[in-house]
Here is the input.
Amino acid sequence: DGGITQSPKYLFRKEGQNVTLSCEQNLNHDAMYWYRQDPGQGLRLIYYSQIVNDFQKGDIAEGYSVSREKKESFPLTVTSAQKNPTAFYLCASSPQGGPTNYGYTFGSGTRLTVV
Amino acid sequence: ILNVEQSPQSLHVQEGDSTNFTCSFPSSNFYALHWYRWETAKSPEALFVMTLNGDEKKKGRISATLNTKEGYSYLYIKGSQPEDSATYLCAPHSGGGADGLTFGKGTHLIIQP
Here is the structure.
């Protein structure tokens, strides 16, 4: 079945350490996205990529980095510069041209806890 | 960043009753409006993508309407069932393209047997 796989489901890290969240899709989608959810808030866009080797900052990119070396993969690194990294992270993808006609396909998320 | 408001924030509905909730968004530069259902421990699932003013879409017992001129959309659930319990998210898409959606905080719906 086609879909998006995020791993791991739960992740614990010590403060000051960088951590990378994995997102892989086998839908042949061109665009991929990272969102963050905090209690009482809507999903907020961190980074997105419309094509391989290209990505753009979203609304809350500070303290995060991404890469898009392969169409299937869009890993997110939470760096030590991110002040409040503990959150639930969702990855999504959409076909070429964006989510206009079909919407996003979402992964199941990674809950990151920094202690 | 778009200002997207969803109301109510949470809703308890008796099984079998019908219900509806609202998504408000800026009407300028409108391109599309998305509705998603997010059940606990699952991935958000796309329900509707709506683009035309006056558009109405239906999927089983769930339907949605769109008013792009005044900037709102309603989601209706007829004859609520326990499996309808979820958080319903709306996300307007301005300008088109693949530049990401802005999500509301959602309406958390609980269906009581």
Remarks:
- Strands of chain B lie at 5-7, 10-14, 19-24, 30-38, 45-50, 56-59, 62-67, 72-77, 86-94, 107-112.
- The interface with chain A takes residues 1, 4, 31-32, 34, 36, 42-46, 49, 51, 89, 93, 96-106 of chain B (CB under 8 Å).
